[in-house]
Amino acid sequence: MRPLRFLAAALQRLVDLMDPHEGRYRMLFEHSPLPMWVADLQTLRFLSVNEAALELYGYTREEFLAMTANDVRPQEDAEAFGAFLRSESGEVVRGVFRNRKRSGGAIDIEGVGHRVTWRGRAARLVLINDITERKRTQEELERLNRELEDRVRSRTAQLEAANKELEAFSYSVSHDLRAPVRHIDGFVKLLEREQPPGTDKAAHYLRTIAASSRRMAALIDDLLALSRTGRAPLEMKTVPLRRLVDEVIADLRPDVARRRVEWRVARLPAVRADPSLLRVVLQNLLENAVKYTQRQRIATIEIGALRLESGETAVFVRDNGVGFDMRYSDRLFGVFQRLHRAEEFEGTGIGLATARRVVHRHGGRIWGEGEPERGACFYFTVQPLGEEG
Over the stretch 200-240, which tens digit does the pLDDT of each residue have? Predict the structure, then answer.
């Protein structure tokens, strides 16, 4: 409110010189660029007015001095305006009101008043700051903000509805595709048993059909999992993260039974999350670490937590596998996006997309860092509750 502070300071200087017969007062009062008037505290009749105020309100001096303050304020502001003028305080008083001009138009004013003595009578000297345009601009901005908020809410509702329809469609299509794919795989096995292929080429064809059907089945299962992570309601609970990590590692042990894998699990916090969905994130990240370290003589997979500069807590999964080129990091979390050929590492390219969806639903973020042949590290932020072993 810089204008009010400025007006208060100017008003105090003027009051210090307040003597209606004193020449310096008349000069300051009459020639001030700020509109000013003096009103009697008992009758509210105007006792004096300067040229700037006459120009603002549109009255002649004779008309203005024949009126009271009640003549320039709308009825709805009567009580507040009267209280402002008749305040018993000797200090500077401030207020924002609506006044009427001679033309009938309304103006918004910011008033600063000081109690003075005018020719033996108690009066209020008031400096006026016309804030009509400022208030109109503010109201227009508020209107535009309301319209923008309404549009955002409407578009958000439309987007949510479209997403729900898309997820329902994806789930339906994926679900309906499972049976035909199972039939293909089953009949290939029956054909191999009942009518063994007569040539190596025929055997190759059958193996290709079987492998493709299994890949399609895995792809459908992953799509269903991705769809479920978006539709399932969150059931937020306290999750001991170390226990959940140990469970996922135990599930992965059959996959690494013939490999040398060194698991390094640091102290992890208890977090606030949906346990089943958080398990999906950890399972995808740890499965990736296992998969992309299969060329290493000794695979090292580290799971820990750290405090970021932003104040967030992040869980990380680091490995010494094949890594990736950071130039293509924007493709990591896209559906069906892969940074390595399917011939090198099997997979559907949906796991990280599923993990990202779960993390985003928890209000967190997920990202990866890597370097070719020097391993990778994936981070996701969580809401910590404490620390455990």
Answer: 888 888 888 887 777 777 767 766 776 667 666 788 999 99
> Which parts of the chain fold into alpha helices (H)?
2-16, 23-31, 51-57, 61-65, 78-86, 132-194, 200-231, 241-252, 275-291, 351-361
Q: What is the pLDDT of residues 304-313, one digit of tens each?
A: 999 999 889 9
Name the nearest CA neighbour of 336 among 229, 228, 223.
Answer: 223
Residues 6+ apart with CB under 8 A from 168: 231
Residues 6+ apart with CB under 8 A from 71: 100
Angle at 205 between CA 204 and CA 207, to 5 degrees: 65
pTM: 0.50
Give the domains, in start order, of the chain with CATH numbers. Answer: 2-130 (3.30.450.20), 159-231 (1.10.287.130), 237-388 (3.30.565.10)
The Cα-based distances of 254 to 261, 262, 288, 349 in angstroms read: 12, 14, 15, 22
Q: Give the whole-angstrom CA distance, residue 181 versus residue 212.
A: 9
pLDDT band for position 349 (cuts 50, 70, 90): low
Asked if 245 and 265 touch (Cβ cutoff 8 Å), the reply is: yes
d(CA 79, CA 82): 5
